[in-house]
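Appendix C reproduces, verbatim, an entry submitted by the partner laboratory led by Prof. M.T., so that reviewers can inspect both the input and the predicted structure.
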Amino acid sequence: MNGRRLFVKRTALAAAALGSWGFVKAQPPVKESAWISVSGRVRSGGKGLAGVRVSDGKSVFVTDSKGNFEFQTDRDFVFLSYPAGYAFNLLENGSVDFFRKLDKNRENQSLDFDLRPLGQSDDRHHFIVLADPQVQTDEEADLFRTESCADMIQTKSEIADPNLFGVGCGDLVFDRFDLFDFYNRALKSTGIPFFQVLGNHDIDLQARSNESAQAPYLAQYGPPYYSFNRGKTHYVVLCDVYFLGNRQYYGYLSETQLSWLEQDLEGLEKGSEVVVFLHIPSFSDIVRLNPGRDANKESVVNRAALYEILKPYKAHLISGHVHWNENRVEGNIFEHNTAAISGAWWSGICYDGTPKGYGVYQSNSGEMSWHYKSVGKTKDFQLRVYPPGKSDKYPDHYLVNVWNWDPAWEIQWTENDRVAGSPTRVETVDPMAADIYAPDKPKKQPWISPQVNGHMFAFKKIDPRAKIKIRVKDRFGNVYEEVIS
């Protein structure tokens, strides 16, 4: 610390000296940040836990053989990366408690984390991902509780997994920070421990800087990026909403955060599964397919840096933000852009035709599987079929919307129980979304319009009198069918 003070002092003197020669105007010395000496212990049942990662969001430290850690920081939080095999402690608001807020008025602080063993193996576990609840009114908050959370309670009962957890993938509210309380109470009703992700509507767009804009979220849920472990899977939550001022933001990952991520992943076995949650997708075809969309707001502008860090691993990126569903595979990166649980801002289905819903994932010894769960439907509801005449672009074709499609899915149609062919993937709008959100239709939010998507399929019937059946098989061998008489 003495060396740091000497450096600051010399820098100030150098600036003053340059100013006397007229090159640089002398400035007063910059006030140092308040450095805090932090010590603590991670323990369970009174016994220290070795090898647990503890961080201040800038550097990552590892507990010693007795569970102790000690370092200096100028940051606001200290948090741990939950080790596998331990139950998640909860905050009063129902979200997972993994952090301690530092008191900037105290130079020395002692922080302890007490963990409880799960009591069963977590090698197999499930998690639910809900994106963009984005409640803006008391009525929408009530719908989130009575519809969305009630559906998740039913899913929880069907899964019957004591290791189940959830992730709120950002835009938890719609600029109404007083509704965080409604959101929290609704999630608590599910009995599912939830982690949270910061979204662009969870920040104060009137703030003067990116750091101060995050205050409403930080007060509720703690640091905006962190990690945890379940079974053989490592999970990371990142903050990719960067506030620019004047109500504007970009999808961007700061250097501090990227450097932290590199440290967080150190020692992780190459080829292992890493799941990263973000709000803004690293990239989405919504920008390519729908001219006029802002790529800076709907993708991460420096995503190449993230991809490079994740290159040694089998990585899944799970995001929200754009209110549609999309699965993209790029090398070792599998990105799942999750449709909004609010649909198109509580107006109905998402504007790509995906029903309101959420993602359900299972990790079994580091091998991931998943499906999309529509609110109010069984998990077998994975497609919607439209007869000819419903699409202006394909008036003579049947259209099929398979919203959770990815390149490993197989789709075919049969006529009178004989395979007739495989539909052609087309880029077009969903007919139901086109009808609901037509320009002349009244809408709850004026900006909603149907969006061209890449999970539509078209085919022409061969025998006009035949009975049609659509058969879809996902990458895990699950088969979904719909019969059209």
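The two ends are 78 Å apart (CA to CA). Additional entries are available on request from the coordinating office.
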